[in-house]
Prior knowledge:
Layout: H1 3-7, H2 14-38, E1 51-55, H3 64-77, E2 82-86, E3 98-99, H4 106-109, H5 111-120, E4 124-126, H6 130-140, E5 145-149, E6 161-167, E7 195-199, E8 206-211, E9 215-216, E10 229-234, H7 239-248, E11 252-258, E12 278-281, H8 282-288, E13 296-299, E14 301-305, H9 307-319
Parallel strand pairs: 1-5, 1-6, 2-4, 2-5, 6-7, 7-8, 10-11, 10-12, 12-13
Antiparallel strand pairs: 3-4, 8-14, 9-13
Helix pairs in contact: 3-5, 5-8
Amino acid sequence: MSKIEQSWFKPFGLITFLLLPLSALFWLISSIRTILYSYNLLSGFACKTPIIVVGNISVGGNGKTPFVLWLYEHLTKQGLSVGIISRGYGGQSDSYPLLVTDNITTLQAGDEPILLYHRLKCPISVGPDRQQNIALLEEKYKLDVIISDDGMQHYKMPRTIECCIVDSQRRFGNGLLMPAGPLRETTKRLNSVDIVIENGGDANNSYQLQTSALCSVNSGGETKTKITQAHAVSAIGNPQRFENSLKALGIKLLSTHHFRDHYAYSADDFEQFGEQSIVMTEKDAVKCRSFAKANWYYLPVDAKPTDIVIDKLNLLLKEKGILNGL
């Protein structure tokens, strides 16, 4: 994490003070843009499929991916055909939109779309143009609903339901807009979304992250080996939550290593560990599979929302006409 990012979650200091003018400029530009869309002076595009946006108002990892996984499974259990679109941050493909298949790598699509695909084996379209992503899914599949992984600030894209994820531990940092703070939009934006859901914590509208058994990075299968100590490696927004989960499993952390979110790993990054065990997140694992050693493991996590979140979401799905008679 850079010094600027660290300053977002510390008391007001020199770095924050120096960046305030840029945050004011960011606020002005984003406010003008929002007004232009609200008065239809900037036009969006239309699509025939309802869109559920799972996003946030701050940068960095807030736990969207586990909720997207849960949401997909919740919708499919109701008999709906569901696709996913993603910006595919960190991926570089020769052409977009890109349909994720077994042969697509994290270098092409980014880490989160590959994680989602390996878990769900569902239609996923990746690329910087969300309109093209949606059009590709609508062309290839007959879908009842599309989940947009991120995109709350992409006002050009229509949306039927907005779910805003908030990290219960870091919340909104110093409460300032970028770059003096972590916010993409002010907290007033929460008043306009359909449902605000906290990742962790004890709020009524929240979900807990539940861990599963450790899996092999090489094979993706559950390991039978008892892991008592390992180096923890992660490239996520909030690594402390991951490391606390490992400790709760009784794993002694030999060291902790934090890389920037969406970091593109290479084998050289792991030479310092020799033949010792490594544990990483599932998002890290999809980027390391091609060069992982036998004693590298990852920790899968799943979101478990409260009954209040599930009931409110079901009500929204019925109100918006996505589900009938649930």
